[in-house]
Design brief:
single chain, 10 helices
Length: 274
């Protein structure tokens, strides 16, 4: 049976449809004119050298900075830093993990049962890195043998071959965080709404923690100065730093600026933090 609608019903339905379309178009146009709040991105870091670039999160940058500082304290060559980075990238993706295979923990997934130290110690990146380097320097010709071979001599992993693919990324990180390539580490983090400690206290704490890894926070060479600057940028969020200056260049926690810009003509005697 065919249902018939009167002309009046059809007219009313048509009017309703037209009004609905008009209201939708009006709302769409109005919303387009209203400024939409910009999403605030999460904290991030990147390393940029003349040959390549890598993206890191804040924790990865901090771990990388710590490894470079410990190596400098131990007066180790850049090759040792490269081996450490490749190992950490494979074992933990440069993260301080509190879990792993069996009782493996930390950046290098060291095991308490294998004599590396207590779990609490192994969860300290400074301690873990010192233990790694103490073992690495005992490897004969570690500077010259293939990276994977040197790393495997330390780690005794089930898959020692897995370290080799990380060598190129490790070289980029080493060039930046050891200070050999200046101005190569940049980080940004959302500014805190309120700081619980005054600026001088925060910068003093940052220098104390740097000295724990590096031995001292004094600048004794331009390369060391850039290592300290890179460490400071990586740890800027943790210690509430918004500016790092060294050798006529400055990093600022400014989302509109990527990288280092020209600063005052200060010398190479000190890395300025604020």
């Amino acid at each position: 049976m065919r249902v018939r609608f009167s002309r009046g019903v059809i007219t009313i339905a048509a009017i309703v449809v037209v009004l609905a379309v008009a209201i939708s178009v009006g709302l769409y146009t109005l919303l387009k004119k209203v400024p939409q709040p910009l999403a605030v991105p999460e904290a991030y870091c990147f390393v940029r050298t003349p040959t390549a670039a890598l993206e890191l999160d804040i924790e990865q940058a901090q771990i990388a900075a710590t490894i470079a500082a410990v190596a400098a304290r131990r007066r180790l060559p850049e090759r040792a830093v490269v081996i450490a980075y490749a190992t950490a990238l494979q074992e933990s993706k440069l993260k301080n993990l509190d879990y792993g295979d069996r009782d493996s923990v930390g950046v290098f997934q060291q095991r308490e049962s294998q004599g590396w130290g207590r779990k609490k110690q192994l969860m300290d990146p400074v301690y873990a890195t010192n233990r790694f380097f103490a073992a690495l320097v005992k490897v004969k010709n570690y500077r010259k043998i293939p990276l994977a071979e040197a790393a495997q001599e330390v780690q005794r992993s089930a898959g020692g071959y897995a370290y080799a693919p990380h060598e190129e990324d490790a070289k980029i990180l080493a060039a930046a965080f050891t200070g050999r390539v200046p101005r190569s580490v940049h980080c940004w983090y959302p500014p805190a709404k309120g700081q619980t400690a005054p600026p001088k206290a925060r910068t003093a704490e940052a220098r104390r923690q740097l000295a724990r890894a590096l031995g001292a926070s004094e600048v004794t060479s331009t390369r060391r100065g850039w290592l300290i600057a890179a460490w400071s940028v990586a740890y800027a969020q943790k210690y509430g730093l918004s500016r790092v200056g060294f050798s006529g260049a400055v990093w600022k926690n400014d989302m509109k600026v990527e990288g280092w810009t020209a600063g005052d003509k200060s010398g190479d005697a000190r890395v300025e933090l604020s």
